[in-house]
Amino acid sequence: MALSRLVPWVLLLLPIVLCDLLRPPRVTAKNVHKSHITHHSLNTEEEERQHQAEHGWHPTEDTCAKALNVSKVALMFLTRGYVQHHDTWELWFKDVQGSLPLSAMQAEGCTADAISAAGHSCGMSGGPKVLHQQHLFSVLTHVGAAEGFKGFPKESMFHGTVVPTTIKTQWGTHSLTKAILLLMETALEEPLNQRFVLLSESDIPLYPPAVVWLQLTSEHKSRIHSCGDHFYLSKAGRWVGDLASSKLQAQHWRMSDTWFMLIRRHAEVITQDIEIEHEFASNCAYSGADPTGWRRCFSDQHLFASVLSYKGMENETACDSAITNSGSGDSQRPHDFEVTEVTYQRLVGLRNPDETICKDAEAIRVAAGQVAHVSIFNATVCHSHVPGFGGELAPSCPLFARKFGPDVADAVSQLMGVTALLRSPFLSQMD
Ligand SMILES: *[C@@H]1O[C@H](CO)[C@@H](O)[C@H](O)[C@H]1NC(C)=O
Ligand SMILES: *[C@@H]1O[C@H](CO)[C@@H](O)[C@H](O)[C@H]1NC(C)=O
Ligand SMILES: *[C@@H]1O[C@H](CO)[C@@H](O)[C@H](O)[C@H]1NC(C)=O
């Protein structure tokens, strides 16, 4: 290769390398403090068992979604303690309480029997809580580390969503990857779950739930970076020979944001892999002893994308995708939003709206005609023409945003309550 062709590459790589070298160690006193907090200290196995029975995993069968074979989007919350936007999420799910995709009813032929059966099992009949009364999403939580976390209170929407096996997580370590795998394994037990989204306690949604559901179920590629075309972005310096196995080789090394959306087949492939995960557990570790940061390896940013690359599934991932907007910071050091920044304009801005790629208003308008409340279904409504969905938002358009801390939670839910940011303008929404 001619030297002149190499020069631009060197110039491109140099700042990245320098940046990595010059970065101060990311572990601050605050991080260390938080990451060593134990989950909950229970003395005996019996206490642990009781606690689990009371505050753990209580999945309820969604007879409505099952009867209609509705593809569900699993929202998997990887948290440190309580989900900080409880009220916002509750408002969000209420927007699709009792709502069904026209496409699911049309697949049943819109028969009078199907409409009547839906009337009996969907919405309020689903159960006492908002999560039981919506049929588009599954919710799972993994609470890995929290000061005095005692489980979600009975009245919380998140009660019963803590996955049956949890581990104590520590920032920057492989334990986060393990926790994500536990979430995915549990989510895969529900055959209706077709999309798997990883969220944190400080995430908020940017669109009404009908848009998120339609968008993600219409996408057939995972929002994770497994493509080999951005080699300089994969932090090649973090690859250590020890990671090589009979399977994984340096050419499969990938880097992606921790926060992803996976299609079901990819979630299956990733959870079925044991060998590569094992290598990462031993060799992809954060080491505080390395002040340059050059060899720091964060397995949650590399393992999943690399496994998909090894499996030859790179082209089934959307390379320029993003599921969560990290504000003006990068994904590793997201911007912490302040109360004064919680405005309608600012949050809409996080959708990166434009006229060609992220047509947010158009997506909301089109979605409103494709999801309807069970009570308004009759033969005419059911047979309404459903145009294809999916051209409005590219996979690079974020659907969620972080990082919104507990101090802005009230401001966010108040804003969501008074604006139409998260509400679908359903044409014939009824209570
Ligand atoms: C239910 O939907 C899934 C995902 O679209 C599909 O793979 C499966 O075959 C469907 N099952 C039935 C019984 O129609
Ligand atoms: C991905 O690549 C493989 C092999 O090159 C090809 O057979 C397959 O059709 C591609 N899939 C997509 C979704 O482009
Ligand atoms: C179906 O519902 C729509 C909207 O509520 C209504 O305008 C229409 O007359 C109904 N059609 C029948 C056949 O009942």
From TrEMBL:
Compositional bias (Basic and acidic residues): 48-59
Secretion signal span: 1-19
Keywords assigned by UniProt, alphabetized: Glycoprotein, Glycosyltransferase, Membrane, Signal, Transferase
Mode of membrane association: Single-pass type II membrane protein
Pfam families: Branch (PF02485)
Protein name: G13522 protein
Species per Swiss-Prot/TrEMBL record: Coccomyxa viridis
Keyword Nucleotide-binding: no
Transferase as UniProt keyword: yes
Transmembrane domains' residue ranges: none
Residue segments, region Disordered: 33-59
Compartment(s) where it occurs, according to its Swiss-Prot or TrEMBL record: Membrane
